[in-house]
Amino acid sequence: MTSTGRVTLPIEQGMDEQLPGILARLGADAVRNSDGTWLPEITPQLGVKVYETYFPARGNQEFALAHLDARPRFYLMSARVAAGAEGALEIDIMRGYLPLQVTPDFTDLYRWWEVIDRTTGDVVDVEGWSVSGEGTDTVVTIAAPAPFHVYTVNFLAWQVWDSTQMYNYTTNNWQEDPTRVREIGYDARHPQAWEFMQQSLRDWCVERPEVDVVRFTTFFYHFTLVFNDLAKEKFVDWFGYSASVSPRAMDAFEVEYGYALRAEDFIDAGYYNSPFRSPSRHYRDWVDFQSRFVSSRVRTLVDIVHDAGKEAMMFLGDNWMGTEPYGQYFGDIGMDAVVGSVGSGATCRMISDIPGVKYSEGRFLPYFFPDVFTDGGDPLGEANESWLCARRAIARKPLDRIGYGGYLSLAVKFPDFVARVEEICDEFRAIHDLGGGLRPENAPIRVAIVNAWGSLRTWQTHMVAHALWYKQIYSYLGVIESLSGLPFDVEWMSFDDVRAGSLDGVDVVLNVGAANTAFSGGDEWLDADLTSALRRHVALGGGLIGIGEPTAVPANGAFFQLSDVFGVDKEIGWSQSTNRYPVAHGEHFITADLRDRVDVGEGAGDIFGIDGAELLQLDGTSVDVAAHTAGAGRAVYVAGLPYNADNTRLLHRAIYWAAGREQEFSSHWTSTNVDVEVAVFPATRKALVMNNSTRAASTVVAGRSSGMLGDGDVVVHRLELDAMESRWLDI
């Protein structure tokens, strides 16, 4: 063990004899409970910092049952149902939903519900439909539907069971345990609920003198997580605000903004304002409105915690809506720390880069739950995968602390796993000890990612449910994952930022994503001011990298509106009569380190080159990778970029080439083996070399003796690294 500290472990009752030894072995200096466990009586005697989870919006069933009108709500959409040739149409609005989680809210329903003809988009007049039944038997009857048109019902529903607790119960098979209560939440906008939340926290702080850190898990509104009638996840959006609605909130919104919101503003035709959708003005206003409200009330809770002499920590998960960590109000909350689940390098940076807190902590995977810690599970493999992704991100922007969650009694049954966690803890502390707790030196290339969300979604793009894999996003999320461990300063800009001139000082711009998504941009690219700003950037010597379907919207004879800059466009079936004769280009700086063909994932398909482009990889006649010079600048196109070592090196080189600085690449501390990456800490005259693969690696590492950007001699190190090994070099 190189040092101790910087590690938080979950503990639980029934392990008193084991706990001191486990904490000492892992060098842990803090402990916590988890949802469903309680701190043991021995906790104050352990001599460590104590976190305890706290749920402001749930946990007191007596209050919840006495104030059912304070329950939080969802906006939900029924199944799409087609009318017949004649007669009324009945829609069972609860079909496909789980009654244990949601039930219709009939409060002033003809004001807050909507019936929509999805064939035309027209709203059916309230006089044209009626409601009968209740709960699971609720039926909406449309008296005179248009024959063979499709209809849906947008309805407000009570949240009967907290979404996170339901997830934990189903994962751990607690549903039938009579000692466990299915908790009902309460909405902070409800006056009595808000008073109860404040007083409960004051009382709790007095009753918990042993607790040093109140770990808010989290605050008021859960991200959108809806289960189907089989208790499986039906809809999940880690960024969704559909569960933050209430008549009281919408009335307050109308007073402040001067216009009324309707159900469809939240339902969004069933897309529920997914972050892949370009956000509407109404949705942007709602996010801002709720963020101001939540931040102001969270500040009150934080002040209560501080008055009790404790620290306030926010878990970036569960009920985090409205506490946007990269929003303009987060800094006003006064939070001491943030903790979040680290499922990748991107999610690690999402946590470690949050401004305005004293320290950040990453909760590593696997979670100590029986879905992994069981016969046939692979906790050791998951631990290695999690660490290899996180380590390269931690090396670029160190987390202050790491930890785990779940049930320690499960984890200790797997000694190989515990031994590996011990190694990971030591390796993490070494980054602080030998790197001085500082950020390593970055290349002198400023990179900007441009999309509809801008800085609000810093390190959060192309995600559905945190770091989970989805088929249609891995080709784009891989770009963010690669960047999380590359030596560049990265910032997120909106299209409005670009129009306002924020590209000044930016070296390379990235536009990444599928057509018609918020990340590629869709109709934004019909704006001549936007396309002109990017053309100007490249013409004056800047770089542009497009991945997937960048700047894509069919208009004016092109699909990629900056096809002239990229040197490629996409055939969408309209210009097949035009003959094209693609010829693969030879060796190029961008592809120099490839061990095999570039993996473009799902790819974009049917990409063709324009005169002057260097086609670096072809898939039949479709272009996978291209490079193009435009004016004094350069552009690179890649059809997709899932995360792997080869693709990360390709992106690393592409950024240097697009910036026109490829001659500096070899002196900026690089490795000849793409599985190996280097982070340089000039202040401590150290370099961290990391083998990111599960096999041994031979490599030559070279860079300047004075650091990445210095003018010292180039020094060379020949290394043999074990699988997953990291090694510190004196520079």
Describe the structure.
The radius of gyration is 27 Å and the shape is globular. It has four domains: 158 residues, Glycosidases (TIM Barrel); 266 residues, Immunoglobulin-like (Sandwich), CATH 2.60.40.10; 220 residues, Rossmann fold (3-Layer(aba) Sandwich); 62 residues, Sandwich (Immunoglobulin-like), CATH 2.60.40.1180. The relative contact order is 0.08. Strands 1-2-3-13-16-17-18-19 form an eight-stranded parallel β-barrel. Strands 21-20-22-23-30-29-28 form a seven-stranded mixed beta sheet. Strands 4, 5, 7, 8, 9 and 12 form a six-stranded antiparallel beta sheet that branches. Helices cover 25% and strands 24% of the residues. With 731 residues, the protein is α/β, with parallel strands linked by helices. The model has no long low-confidence stretch (mean pLDDT 95).
What's the gist of this structure?
Residues 669-729 form the Lacto-N-biose phosphorylase C-terminal domain. Residues 446-663 form the Lacto-N-biose phosphorylase central domain. This protein is 25% helix and 24% strand.
The top-level CATH class of the largest domain is: Mainly Beta
Number of DSSP E strands: 36
Largest sheet: 8 strands, parallel, barrel
Indicate how many domains the architecture comprises.
4
- Structural class computed from helices and strand pairing: alpha/beta
Stretches with pLDDT under 50, minimum 5 residues: none
The fold-level CATH name of the largest domain is Immunoglobulin-like
Query: What characteristic shape results from the CA principal axes?
Result: globular
Radius of gyration: 27 Å
Q: Look at the structure and name the CATH superfamily of the largest domain.
A: Immunoglobulins
Strand order of the largest sheet: 1-2-3-13-16-17-18-19
Going by CATH, the architecture of the largest domain would be Sandwich
Q: What is the helix fraction of residues, given as a range? A: 25-40%
C-alpha termini separation = 24 Å
**Average pLDDT for all residues:** 95
Helix count equals: 17
Strand content: 15-25%
> What is the chains' assembly state?
single chain
